[in-house]
């Protein structure tokens, strides 16, 4: 792991941090404040974002296959062209932000992503047409 990222992980508040184009695969960000953080073009395979506050975060063209977003808050996030294949989205909140803006999901891949009755899906997302898997 990169020393800069290792030092950052010691902090709870990572709001606004820039992980653009970095490989953060397998890193545990669980319960961190990542409000407005940038993961554009990042590789985050099987990364733990469980319980994170990712309000207004950016995942443009990010590869987050198999990542854990259980109970994460992604209100108003930019997920355009991101790959959420097999990600765990159970209990995640993709609802509108405080300005009533939507989470952006243009050409986002959700194939095989898990969701449940507690998941607040983004406007316009039809889980079955995306190949998402519902869990009780």
Strand order, biggest sheet?
1-2
Unreliable spans: none
Q: Could you tell me the radius of gyration in angstroms?
A: 13 Å
Distance between the termini: 36 Å
Query: Approximately how much beta-strand content do the residues carry?
Result: under 5%
| Average pLDDT score | 94
Q: How many strands?
A: 2
Bulk shape: globular
**Which sequence of SSEs, written as H and E, runs from N to C?**
HEHE
Which class do the helix and strand fractions yield?
little secondary structure
Reported for the largest beta sheet, the result is: 2 strands, parallel
Tally of DSSP helical segments: 2
Specify the helix fraction band: under 10%
Structure description:
The protein is largely without helices or strands and 136 residues long. The protein is built from two helices and two strands; from the N terminus they run H-E-H-E. The chain has helices at residues 3-9, 127-130, and strands at 114-115, 133-134. It has a two-stranded parallel ribbon with strand order 1-2. Strand 1, helix 2 and strand 2 (133-134) form a beta-alpha-beta unit. The mean pLDDT is 94.
């Amino acid at each position: 792991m990169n020393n800069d990222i290792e030092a950052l992980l010691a902090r709870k508040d990572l709001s606004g941090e820039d992980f653009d184009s970095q490989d953060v695969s397998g890193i545990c960000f669980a319960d961190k404040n990542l409000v407005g953080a940038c993961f554009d073009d990042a590789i985050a395979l099987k990364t733990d974002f469980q319980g994170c506050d990712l309000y207004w975060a950016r995942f443009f063209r990010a590869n987050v296959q198999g990542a854990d977003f259980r109970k994460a808050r992604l209100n108003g996030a930019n997920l355009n062209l991101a790959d959420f294949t097999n990600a765990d989205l159970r209990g995640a909140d993709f609802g509108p932000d405080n300005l009533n803006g939507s989470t952006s999901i243009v050409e986002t891949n959700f194939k095989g992503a898990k969701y449940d009755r507690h998941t607040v899906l983004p406007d316009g997302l039809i889980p079955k047409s995306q190949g998402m898997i519902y869990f009780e």
